[in-house]
Amino acid sequence: MSLPYKLFGAFMTFIIVPLIALGFALYILVTNMIEEKYSGQAELTLRALTQSVGFVFGEMNKVTDSTIASDAIQEMLNNGYETDLKEIDYLDLNKVQRNFRDLLINHPSVSYAFMYTLNNERINRIFTKEHFQAMPFSQFKKQEIYQQVLDRKGQPVWVGPYEYPELTGVDPVFTQIRVVKDIATLNDKGILLVQIKNSGIESVFRYFRYKQKQSTTEFLIVNGKGLIMYDSSEKLNGKFIDQYVKKPLVLDTTYRSGRGKFDGQDSVISSIGAGIEKEDWHLVSITSWKSLSSEVGLYSRWVVGILLFCVLSACYFIMFFANRIAKSILQTVKFMRRVERGDLNARLPIKGNDETVLLARGFNSLVSQVSELLTEVKSEQERKRHAELQALQAQIKPHFLFNALESINVLAVQNQGKKVSQMVTRLGNLLRISIMQREQITVEQELDHLLSYLGIQKFRFEELFDFEIDIPPELMRYAMLKLTLQPLVENCIQHGFEGIDYMGHIRVSGREEGDVLAFYIEDNGIGIPPERLAAFNYDRPMKDIRHEDSPQTGETRGLGVYNVADRIRIQYGSRYGLFICSEQGTGTTMKFTIPKKDTGSVAHETEGAAD
């Protein structure tokens, strides 16, 4: 077996095949195993957390259920204090507060409570809280949460930390808000706000974090907007979770789990509904992938050992049997990659006198030929585009020019100086844009060119056609190939209105369609026969298509249409082009599309202009 075959066989046997097969298999197997195992464990954990958290809030709901039906609450609601709270008799106030506290103090999680009375819009404090001033009822009514509380009709509304700090304060506590009704009439009499301490919730999460001590897990309570209301590590409180993930999380009541980046760290992110009735809250667990994958250390050592054996075996073979050939091949591959990236100046160094020199010379020769060929093709394309532009510029037919001059002469003989000036100005504008060296001009300039052409033709064929222009002003600043609209309109006049006995009509319109500009040229002429319409194949070069001459004018027809189609395709690519829809006896609609490109401020051609 020859040395190249040995090198290829050894490389494939000892390196490529084992690395690809082993690496791929182990990666898929181990990753899926860890992810599936943890996903099941995380689901059980989050569902248990959901029940525990729901129990904490449910207990508080039961406490306030019994509180709002108590005599103390009803007495406070029906006792219409007409003075400010500070002016109420201290003993009377202390009695009311004591009654409240008798109802709520038994629950260790309650940290603060007060109530708005609706009849006099007063604030009745149940517990005092330092450095916190309750929001006046007049401001509370303007908050979105106020209407939400009324809509619950006595059912509690839970507000998390940082959701409404102006109402609940800046402490990281959860607040229950609910309507209190009169027992006798069931009318809304007040609104009760009760804040609970985080100790109960923290004890729940502390227990589950201890149970998962083999992995680094962080638990969050997140609302529907992504606001982190509780973080078991206390690092992300008050932040938005979308700031720490690349792809926004889908938060709903179903269990979801996946691997991704969280705060720049590879993690397994799991989420589920928090289990709190009517609140759009979610439990999210963040587990470090590094901590989860630590258990596969044994597998990693086996993989490293096998890979090391394969690499050492391959290196031994290359060093003692084919070192120089391997280096030459690697060097050749390196230069091939440079050529693939577009570096056509890359050349292999010529060293030695064996077969590798032939390989290097062949590679260098190939790259040189490819470079020359690409340069030639690029130059040929530029020449082709320039020639096509020149051909289009030359399409101002002699007959049209002679007829325009003859019309000016007739006006001069008739001593109609104003019309002579108008015709000369239009012809000058037509020639100025036609001979302009720039390939692309603004839509506004192209429209000026078209109006000059239509003005001359309208004078010559006043009874033959009329026209309508409908191009929005906001399109005028975009760029387009010059001499695009005029050849298509010229085709309508020469071909569409040939032999008609009614007034022809041309409509030119334009609009934005997504990221492209679309222009429409419509006429009510004689239409195009199906066999000729089928011949409009714009994938063929314009030079390969034969055109017929008009028996009336002796001018070539259809050249402008093909020219426009070819130029659009070459300039902008196959995504853009010209499309024709026609029916005999009804008329023709031509549409062409170009990319929407803002020219900024395209300088107007001023050469030869005189006022």
Automatic annotation (TrEMBL):
The chain crosses the membrane at residues 7-30, 302-322. InterPro entries: Bact_2-comp_sensor_kinase, HAMP_dom, HATPase_C_sf, HATPase_dom, Sig_transdc_His_kin-like_C, Sig_transdc_His_kin_internal. Residues 323-375 form the HAMP domain. It comes from the Bacteria. Signal peptide: none annotated. It catalyses: ATP + protein L-histidine = ADP + protein N-phospho-L-histidine. Gene3D superfamilies: 6.10.340.10, Histidine kinase-like ATPase, C-terminal domain. GO terms for cellular component: plasma membrane. One of its GO terms (molecular function) is phosphorelay sensor kinase activity. Keywords: Cell membrane, Kinase, Membrane, Phosphoprotein, Transferase, Transmembrane, Transmembrane helix, Two-component regulatory system. SMART domains: HAMP (SM00304), HATPase_c (SM00387). Its EC number is 2.7.13.3. It is a multi-pass membrane protein. Its main location: membrane. It is found in: Cell membrane. PANTHER family: SENSOR HISTIDINE KINASE YPDA. This is histidine kinase.
